[in-house]
User: Which sequence fits this backbone?
């Protein structure tokens, strides 16, 4: 039994991701060092086994969100969510959080195992990309230059609105990606002149 406990503890500590479990009363039954460090960073909390996880969030919305997610899982539902958590005064981060019911030998849910992954940097990169794409879209709409971009790997072709106006073609009649690769600009210009 002691060897099995040591193995489980080793598994918990082998990951840099926060991992913890709670019982039906929301009290910690286990957690790894990464989870303890995360709770300290985002809430300034020194967590303890046997204490309720709901005692630690310093923001009411985080506390109520944690309770709602744990309650759903205690009813047997598996959840994978992306949530921003933490005290704005300390650190607010985005996590992908997986909630999993822990079933007892009788099949009833006796607790919840939670695995989290900090995806804050990924979310920032996605937002930066969205903003960049929006700036590009606005620039394309504002310019009178006819531009097109062909992604050879995917076969997708982007035509700026001005490109259609210059060729006196409506976007649906513009060549598809395959045709764009087979049709020369001269052929497209001849087609425009013949109209």
Assistant:
């Amino acid at each position: 039994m002691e060897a099995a406990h040591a193995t489980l503890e080793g598994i918990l500590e082998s990951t840099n991701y926060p991992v913890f479990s709670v019982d039906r009363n929301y009290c910690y039954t286990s957690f790894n060092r990464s989870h303890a460090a995360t709770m300290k960073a985002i809430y300034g909390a020194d967590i303890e086994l046997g204490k309720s996880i709901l005692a630690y969030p310093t923001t009411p919305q985080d506390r109520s969100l944690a309770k709602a997610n744990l309650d759903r899982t205690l009813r047997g539902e598996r959840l994978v969510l992306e949530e921003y958590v933490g005290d704005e005064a300390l650190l607010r981060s985005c996590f992908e959080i997986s909630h999993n019911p822990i079933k007892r030998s009788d099949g009833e849910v006796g607790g919840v195992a939670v695995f989290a992954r900090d995806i804050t940097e990924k979310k920032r990169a996605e937002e930066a990309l969205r903003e960049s794409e929006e700036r590009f879209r606005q620039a394309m709409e504002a310019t009178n230059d006819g531009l097109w971009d062909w992604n050879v790997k995917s076969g997708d072709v982007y035509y700026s609105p001005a490109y259609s106006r210059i060729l006196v073609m409506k976007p649906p009649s513009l060549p598809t990606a395959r045709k764009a690769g087979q049709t020369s600009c001269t052929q497209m210009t001849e087609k425009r002149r013949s109209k």
Summary: Helices lie at 2-13, 33-43, 60-74, 120-142, 161-167, 177-182, 185-193. The two ends are 84 Å apart (CA to CA).
